Amino acid sequence: MASPRRLPLSLSRRGFLLATAGAGAALGLAQAPARAAAAPRPFGRYGAPSARLNARTLYVDPSGRGDFTSVQAAVTAVGGSGWTLVIAPGTYRETVSVDRSRTEMTWLGAGDGPRDVVIVYDNAAGTPKPDGSGTYGTTGSATTTVRGDGFTAHRITFANDFLREEHPEISGTQAVAIKVQGDRSAFHHCRFLGHQDTLYSDSNAASVFARQFFSHCYVEGDVDFVFGRATAVFEHCHFRTLNRTDLSGAPYGFVFAPSTEAANPHGYLVTRGRVSSEAPDGYYKLARPWVPSSSTTARPMLTVRDTWLGPGIDAVAPYANMRDAHPWQDQRFAEYRNTGPGAVVTVPENRPQLADEQAESANRATWLGDWRPPEAC
Length: 377
Description:
mainly beta, globular
């Protein structure tokens, strides 16, 4: 195996966000808007406060040309169902929470792509709360939390830029970019950036089988960076594993850590995607099952099909246990017609494959049932 590359993580993480969001000073993810200062129409084709798309549309712009300068302020201002937020290009350093009463909400990034609209913060599970009441925990670390059903986002980056190397005093390094719990949640052309626990694709309760759809999205991280108990379909998505300088050997981490309830027939489905890496070859596992101590009725499910797996994935042993009491072989892991060096089957018992007849039903329609996700706009 190749030796690890030693990259400055603060530069790679914040520099990447900085360059692609167009914000201000280096290494700081400044709060200045990405393009708003020069753009005569910060909301693009989506109107403006003087010419709204409809009465339930609000405009967010950090330079003050909208109804609100922060995303959370706009969310707090509305109640009920069916609101749309048009978000101007900029870097929004804040935490945002959409509660269960705010349903059928849509967020439209008004830039040319997800790099132009960035919602980011840097809480981790072990970060002390300002009021002294303890630490945030994994759920509390989320930059954005969505509990309401029917949420849709287009062309937005959700990020958590907490860095282990900057906080050696913190042992709880889970740092969620977004936690999605609502049913019928859709994300088109979005980015999810973080390190550990980047994308928490979950539900509001173990008995609720929340359906979520991710189309043409980009997700990066290192440890369990796509995880949770939702029924989620990832179509044409790119997953990228990051390099690490704090470890001397493999594995660096795991792409997926589903925690699907045993009663739920559908967990994570990855189709026509791509898994790449900036780490040495073979330093990442594709998945491990998460059976939380709070929900031992979980039987994690992951199907990866028609997806390119790069050399960063350990092709010999792509799955591992999180706890020996719940071996991955007892869970519902399967692959089908994957390609790339990380998909080469060298030890068949380590690479469970769907039969052709099983693969016929491993698709979006089966996973999402009677819900048809909104199209990208």
